[in-house]
Amino acid sequence: MSSSIISKLPPVAANARRVFMVRHGEVIPPNGAAHGVHYGDMDVDLSPLGKKEATAAAEYLSQYTLHSVYSSPLSRAVYGAEEVRKSRSFSSKQETLTLPGFSELCRGAWRMKTKDEIGLETYAKFNGCDESVTPEGGESIMTVKNRVMGALNEIVKSTPDGEATCVVSHLWVTRSMISDALGLDPSKMNEVDIPTASISCVDYEEGGKAQVVMQGFKPDVGLEKSKDTGN
C-alpha cells in the first residue's frame, strides 16, 4: 500500500480508538559508515531526504484530528513527531510524549555490522525469532515486541473512544504493532513491509479486537527513493 492514491480514511467508530503509526525517515549511517550497517537503538541523525519524508508524512496526517502524539525517545523519531504537531488541531493540550517502550530494537554486539559480517545464517535465524542467536547486549525480536505492546496498550487506554492518536517510531516497533494486529506469528514479523516515513493505521475496538486500516502507506510527493538497507 505504498501508492499516493488513497482517499481520506473513514471516521473512527464510536467504540474504537485509532492509532496512526509512522516510521521515521531515512537516516545518515553513524560514524561515516555506508548504508547497510545496523544501528538499531543508536541515536542517529535523519538525512536531508529523511527530514523531507517526515514532513510529507506529517502533511498527510494534517487532515486528521489527533488526541495526542507519542514518540520513541530517539531524535529521528522525535523530529517526525514534532513535524506532526506543527500545523494541526488536537483534542488535547498534551505535548509530544516520549515512551522508552517505542525505542528501536537494540542491536548490541551487532551495532555497526552488516548482514555479511553478522553471518547470513545467523541473521536469518534471528529474523525468524530464534532467541539463541540474540547478540550479546542486544534484544531478541520477542523482547522488543513485548515492550512495544506494553507501550501501545498504555496509549490506547489513554485515547478516548472515537478519537485517534499518533506514534512516531521505528521499523521493528511498527512491525511489532502491525504483526500483532494481523495475528501473524512472530517468526513472520520480518516480512512486514514498513518503508521509511510510511504511515500505518490500526483501529482498536472494545474487547481488544484490532483492525488494520492502512499499512505502510507512503505519500508520493516526488521525493527520491530512500536508502533503507540497515536498521
UniProtKB/TrEMBL annotation:
- Enumerate the SMART domains for this protein: PGAM (SM00855)
Q: Name one GO molecular function term.
A: phosphatase activity
Q: Which InterPro entries match?
A: His_Pase_superF_clade-1, His_PPase_superfam, PGM_Phosphatase
Per the record, its GO cellular-component terms are: cytosol
> Cross-referenced CDD domains, in alphabetical order?
HP_PGM_like
Binding-site positions, substrate: 76
* Name this polypeptide is given: Phosphoglycerate mutase
Protein source organism: Triparma strigata
